[in-house]
Amino acid sequence: MLRFLRSLIFWTAKNHGVTERPMGFKVNSLSTPSIPKTSAPQPKPSEALSVGRSLLVETNRKQRQAMIRQLALHEGLRLKPYKCTTGALTIGYGRNLDARGITEAEAEMMLSHDIDDFQDRLLREIPWMAELSPVRQRVLLDMAFNLGISGLLKFQRTLAAVRGEEYERAAAMMLDSRWATQVGQRAKRLSRMMATGQIPPELK
User: Fold this and answer.
1) Local structure of residue 130 (DSSP, 8 states)
2) How far, in Å, CA of 193 to CA of 187, rounded?
3) Mean pLDDT over residues 65-70, rounded?
């Protein structure tokens, strides 16, 4: 009789859509509501951070300037490399050269500024340089960049030959120097440029 009643209960539950559960567990009639799925993708944490950073340093100019003043106050400005409190080689407003170095864009910006600086200083020392062709001006600028202004000015006979438009003679004297033995291919290339006034194929 007991087996018959149990079979009847199971049959009734099955035909009325009630899920069969093991005996002895209480069935909770309240089901947990499902969370609707959204079709719009949720931003990743990195994307959210990017948006926040954009608002601070790009969109909001006032906040960016405030951040610059804050870091400038805390870091201080040093125009030559130094060792910070942790022993890292540092420059500017706390730029860690050991860890970060500089970017290619920063290196090109520095190079461009250095070219302007060397050109201005050279024109003050040898103003006749402005009368040379652009290629020969580049030769003297290149040498000054490598040797320093004072180093280039020691090539007195070479500079005199350049000023007198004796370009092949100047080129020969450039090669007949300790500098040429130190820089090798650089001196050979620059001497050809001085002699011919032409840009070599590798620089075109």
Assistant:
1) G
2) 10
3) 90
